[in-house]
Design goal:
The strands form two sheets. Strands 2-1-5-6-7 form a five-stranded mixed β-sheet, covered by helices on one side. It has a two-stranded antiparallel ribbon with strand order 3-4. The protein has a single domain (about 30-220), classed as Beta-carbonic Anhydrase, Chain A. A hairpin with a 2-residue loop joins strand 3 and strand 4. It is about 40% helix and about 20% strand. It is α/β, with parallel strands linked by helices and about 220 residues long. The chain contains six helices and seven strands, in the order H-E-E-E-E-H-E-H-H-H-E-E-H. Helix 3 packs across helix 4 (about 120-140) and helix 4 (about 120-140) crosses helix 5.
Length: about 220
């Protein structure tokens, strides 16, 4: 119970600090953005934005930062992601991958060899495989494993943004952003920086910087394909 006791002690500090921050959001929420992050323990979903305001961000987490959900009618935008867009007037959706992603690594292994894991994990990987297969095929032959994974992280973010853009359930007015959270020094900035790689389907860094000068210094890519 030591882990739980430590977590509850931390929660007591949180509750004391946040006691009066729920006054305006107790009965309704209208978050500025929905973020879809990998549920990796190293990806700090609110802390990466320095967010301490309840009601500001609607955070979704799963392995591989997927927006895709399999339904009886085929693939659809996950209800977790769609809910704030459909019901809370949220007009920005941000897909956040991260360097060294285990789900992308497992998908790469499944596409290039064999993967054997628990059924629930394989289900998640199976959702990623059709969206990453073409990316694996495009990798230069001399790309080492670590570089391949981090390039496929960007490719996965692009495909998730693309899926949102193609969905009739997501209004065209919703701004779609793809980003990568870096704690492996892959992008050359500080560890924990978020690097924007995609805005509304545009992935060319030069075009993105020209179109978004206010965030030009945070736009970067490891791979253009």
């Amino acid at each position: 119970m030591d882990t739980l006791a430590n977590l509850l002690a931390g929660n007591a500090k949180h509750a004391a600090a946040f006691d009066d921050r729920f006054d305006d959001v107790q009965d309704a929420q209208h978050p500025e953005a929905v973020t879809v992050c990998c549920s990796d323990s190293r990806v700090l979903q609110d802390a990466m934005w320095d967010n301490a305001d309840p009601g500001r961000l609607f955070t979704c987490g799963n392995i591989g930062n997927r927006v895709v959900q399999r339904t009886a009618a085929g693939e659809a935008v996950s209800g977790d992601v769609l809910y704030p867009i459909a019901h809370t007037d949220t007009e920005t959706a941000i897909v956040v991958g991260h360097t060294g992603c285990g789900a992308v690594t497992a998908t790469y292994d499944a596409l290039t060899g064999e993967l054997s894991d628990a059924a629930g994990i394989e289900h998640c990987i199976d959702l990623l495989k059709p969206h990453l297969e073409s990316g694996v095929e495009r990798l230069p032959a001399d790309t080492d494993r670590a570089a391949a994974i981090n390039r496929l992280v960007e490719y996965n973010v692009d495909r998730q943004v693309e899926f949102l853009a193609a969905s009739d359930d997501v209004p065209a007015s919703v701004e779609l952003v793809g980003a990568v959270y870096d704690f492996q020094d892959a992008y050359g900035g500080d560890r924990g920086e978020v690097h924007v790689v995609n805005v509304d389907g545009e992935t060319d860094p030069t075009t993105l910087r020209d179109d978004n000068p206010e965030i030009a210094d945070r736009i970067d890519r490891l791979w253009t394909y």
